[in-house]
């Protein structure tokens, strides 16, 4: 349960423009789609995927670190890690289980012939969009557990795109279609309050000291 008095206290420290920007951005955030990246060796690609999630309104990024254990490159993410929720998993099975328990269908992005073309993808169902490694693509475990497959239409000789480019194209296309639809895709009021509190804390220097002072003056 959000402490609304504490939220109001923190937001009072922020500028009116900052608070207005938070509300504007949150109005376009969604968990209807979520993104998952599997064992991406070149971590700058995961950071770039995170930036695409942030820019196009995807609130959660799921990172499977089963093999390489890489960390987000903050320079390439350019601060996006402050605004996108990152769920980390040390196994494919753990990630799949978590996402399925939240009601997501598992969608593998691959260049196979049987895949659904991007423009034909059914956006009505909550979907977890999986992107694989640069060299090997998605693992057999994910492919075997996928509820569907998604393909970007291409007309050149090249058969695949860099993961960060693929993610940007797919996320932009699907979120644009989502916002034009009558699907209930927005964050709930409670989710928005949670993000307002977290983003306020992320925006204030020495917030731990301020928090301690607040609860000293306002014991629960």
TrEMBL record:
<keyword id="KW-0949">S-adenosyl-L-methionine</keyword>
<keyword id="KW-0820">tRNA-binding</keyword>
<dbReference type="InterPro" id="IPR029028">
    <property type="entry name" value="Alpha/beta_knot_MTases"/>
</dbReference>
<protein>
    <recommendedName>
        <fullName>tRNA (guanosine(18)-2'-O)-methyltransferase</fullName>
        <ecNumber>2.1.1.34</ecNumber>
    </recommendedName>
</protein>
<dbReference type="InterPro" id="IPR033671">
    <property type="entry name" value="TrmH"/>
</dbReference>
<comment type="similarity">
    <text>Belongs to the class IV-like SAM-binding methyltransferase superfamily. RNA methyltransferase TrmH family.</text>
</comment>
<keyword id="KW-0819">tRNA processing</keyword>
<dbReference type="GO" id="GO:0032259">
    <property type="term" value="P:methylation"/>
</dbReference>
<dbReference type="InterPro" id="IPR001537">
    <property type="entry name" value="SpoU_MeTrfase"/>
</dbReference>
<feature type="domain" description="tRNA/rRNA methyltransferase SpoU type">
    <location>
        <begin position="33"/>
        <end position="171"/>
    </location>
</feature>
<dbReference type="InterPro" id="IPR029026">
    <property type="entry name" value="tRNA_m1G_MTases_N"/>
</dbReference>
<dbReference type="Pfam" id="PF00588">
    <property type="entry name" value="SpoU_methylase"/>
</dbReference>
<feature type="binding site">
    <location>
        <position position="152"/>
    </location>
    <ligand>
        <name>S-adenosyl-L-methionine</name>
    </ligand>
</feature>
<comment type="function">
    <text>Catalyzes the 2'-O methylation of guanosine at position 18 in tRNA.</text>
</comment>
<dbReference type="GO" id="GO:0008168">
    <property type="term" value="F:methyltransferase activity"/>
</dbReference>
<keyword id="KW-0694">RNA-binding</keyword>
<feature type="binding site">
    <location>
        <position position="161"/>
    </location>
    <ligand>
        <name>S-adenosyl-L-methionine</name>
    </ligand>
</feature>
<keyword id="KW-0808">Transferase</keyword>
<feature type="binding site">
    <location>
        <position position="109"/>
    </location>
    <ligand>
        <name>S-adenosyl-L-methionine</name>
    </ligand>
</feature>
<keyword id="KW-0489">Methyltransferase</keyword>
């Amino acid at each position: 349960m959000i402490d609304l008095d504490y939220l109001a206290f923190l937001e009072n420290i922020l500028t009116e423009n900052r608070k207005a920007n938070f509300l504007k951005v949150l109005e376009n955030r969604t968990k209807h789609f979520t993104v998952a990246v599997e064992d991406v060796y070149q971590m700058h690609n995961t950071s770039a995927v995170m930036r695409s999630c942030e820019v196009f309104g995807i609130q959660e990024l799921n990172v499977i670190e089963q093999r390489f254990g890489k960390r987000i490159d903050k320079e390439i993410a350019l601060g996006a890690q402050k605004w996108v929720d990152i769920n980390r998993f040390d196994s494919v099975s753990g990630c799949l289980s978590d996402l399925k328990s939240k009601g997501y269908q598992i969608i593998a992005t691959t260049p196979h012939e049987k895949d659904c073309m991007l423009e034909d993808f059914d956006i009505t169902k909550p979907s977890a969009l999986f992107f694989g490694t640069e060299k090997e693509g998605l693992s057999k475990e994910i492919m075997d557990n996928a509820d569907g497959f998604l393909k970007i239409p291409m007309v050149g000789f090249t058969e695949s795109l860099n993961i960060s480019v693929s993610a940007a194209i797919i996320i932009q296309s699907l979120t644009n279609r989502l916002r034009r639809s009558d699907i209930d895709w927005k964050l709930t009021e409670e989710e928005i309050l949670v993000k307002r509190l977290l983003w306020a804390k992320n925006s204030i220097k020495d917030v731990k000291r301020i928090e301690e002072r607040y609860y000293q003056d306002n014991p629960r």
